Amino acid sequence: MSQASELRNIFLTLRFDGSAFHGWQVQPNAFTAQEALQTAAAKILGTTPNIIGCSRTDAGVHAAMFCCNFRCSSGLSREQLLPALNYYLPEQIAVIDCREVPLEFHARYDCKEKTYRYHIRNSRVRDPFLLRRATLESAPLDADMLHAQAQDFVGTHDFASFCAAGGSAKTSVRTISRFDVRRTNEDVELFVTADGFLYNMVRIMVGTLLDINKGRLPQGCIPDILAAKNREAAGVTAPAEGLWLADVRYD
After folding, report:
1. Which long-range contacts (CB under 8 A, 24 or more apart) does 46-54 make?
2. Hey, where are the domains in the chain?
3. For 73-92, what is each residue's pLDDT tens digit?
4. Active site residue 158
5. DSSP letter for each residue of 190-210
6. Which pTM value belongs to this model?
7. Catalytic residue of the set 58, 110, 144, 152
8. Coil, helix or strand at residue 152
9. Which end is more exposed in the chain, N or C (fewer Cβ atoms within 10 Å of the end residue's Cβ)?
10. pLDDT tens digits for 32-58?
11. CATH no. for 113-249
């Protein structure tokens, strides 16, 4: 369907509603965002490209910004590729930018920082417009206290206590540069920026903060949990529906 050309490296920026997908990465017997994109690309390119994602999001996790790249020999321009991909993609996912990058660029390994946002609707009444896009928490949340507690995550630490079983990372050491907790009326949002994240890391950090808020864990406990390097020392895993990949940064 596309004219042959020299090998090119195509960089895409996406947005997707994670409730429609079983995470990013292709897996058997489950529909994923990567599969949806590869299927759409195959219809345009005539062959299925190996699409490299910037992160491996869990089932139900959303992306306001998700970056990926693939190599192909298509002669289609950016102005042709972007609408063509969106034509074949399901409505829960969209390509919002398309550009050509150097052949050696890798969406995952060249990523310098990612920012995740966790959205909590702090109310006794659900908001139908936030269904599957925010976590409902009826217990009052002290956002200022949670922000102060979250600062113990900032810095370079071994986050083994905040990693679920099944992760494949070679090291559990990560550097968090920012962890903010903000309230706007009944919405509490947590923003965390790091050079990388472990499997379920953000959801376990959020769950631990919620357990501190409820008194299940004492204030000031985060340094001890980090030192324990034991998942059982940390709090619960917060639901996937409140988590969004918000920003991805490259040099």
Report:
1. 46/1, 46/2, 47/72, 52/106, 52/107, 52/108, 53/24, 53/25, 53/107, 53/108, 54/107, 54/108, 54/111, 54/114, 54/248
2. 4-101, 113-249
3. 988 998 999 999 999 999 99
4. no
5. EEEEES---TTHHHHHHHHHH
6. 0.92
7. 58
8. helix
9. C
10. 999 999 999 999 999 999 999 999 888
11. 3.30.70.660
